[in-house]
């Protein structure tokens, strides 16, 4: 939604981000809202495959304190996405010294430059609650949640219905019959 904000608001938000996030957000602002990059958010945490549950739990707690939301936890190895660590696995933090790599589950992915219709196809093929968005080199850029995608699907359905019925974009339910006929 930052892409829809005016320049002053965009700059104010970007100034509050750390350098790494600022760079990613500026990169994302280059894409239209109808691309995978335009749909994604940065509400995730990445951890290395060899990290132990204690360290991952701490990263998740810090993220929650900072954002007020529980993040998706993606596991990477040498910068490449291996999959997602399910939230239920974090209850394993009592297991001393165990690495998270044994609990990784495959997660659906989509490239950042794919159109939103491709993202819908990925969700249909993988009825998960999130899809990871990847850069050209396979590194993770963000995540698209199912609820964010519902908005896209609703907009597409609304546009299709309007096209089918011949409704103009400016038409209102309060318009009289004469203006409605004129618009069609």
Can you give me a brief rundown of this structure?
The protein has seven helices and six strands. By secondary structure, it is of the alpha/beta class.
Question: Which SSEs are present, and which pair or pack?
Answer:
Elements: H1 7-16, H2 19-28, H3 36-39, E1 44-48, H4 53-67, E2 72-77, E3 80-85, E4 109-111, H5 116-125, E5 130-134, E6 140-145, H6 146-165, H7 177-183
Parallel strand pairs: 1-2, 4-5
Antiparallel strand pairs: 2-3, 5-6
Helix pairs in contact: 5-6
The total of helices stands at: 7
Q: What is the H/E order? A: HHHEHEEEHEEHH
Strand order of the largest sheet: 1-2-3
Profile the largest sheet.
3 strands, mixed
How much strand? 15-25%
Q: What is the CATH architecture annotation?
A: Roll
Instruction: Give the overall average pLDDT.
Output: 79
Number of domains: 1
Under the CATH scheme, which class?
Answer: Alpha Beta
- What proportion of the residues is helical, as a percent range? 40-55%
| Structural class by helix and strand composition | alpha/beta
- Would you identify the CATH H-level superfamily? CBS-domain
Global geometry:
globular
Which consecutive residue ranges, at least 5 long each, have pLDDT under 50? none
Rg, please?
Answer: 20 Å
